[in-house]
Amino acid sequence: MTSASPTITVLYFAAASTATGLPYETIPVPSEGLLLSSLPKLIVSRHPSANDLNHILETSQWSVDAEMIDDPEFVTLKGGEEVAVICPVSGG
């Protein structure tokens, strides 16, 4: 008996949405979980032709279930979460 892999929903805004061509996507996570700090590498691997995506994700902030995350090294995604990529905003 096998069950479907747990998934997260990743919301893309601004430059991240432009780079991926998506407003959001559902991404499977391993049953043991995935560190939020590992998510950018996984997203880049899913969008190899996305222009400048790695830089965009490196400079972005993250929220999980509408809560801003200060240190992605200490957040493990287990499945069911909504993760938002919050790109830097420029303006004057």
Short description:
It is found in: Cytoplasm. By secondary structure, the protein is an alpha+beta fold.
Outline the structure in words.
The chain is an alpha+beta fold and about 90 residues long. It has one domain (about 10-85): Roll (Ubiquitin-like (UB roll)), CATH 3.10.20. Helix content is about 25%, strand content about 30%. The protein is built from three helices and seven strands. The protein has helices at about 15-20, 40-45, 55-60; strands at about 5-10, 25-30, 35, 60-65, 65-70, 75, 80-85. The strands form two sheets. It has a five-stranded mixed beta sheet. Strands 3-6 form a two-stranded antiparallel ribbon. The mean pLDDT is about 95.
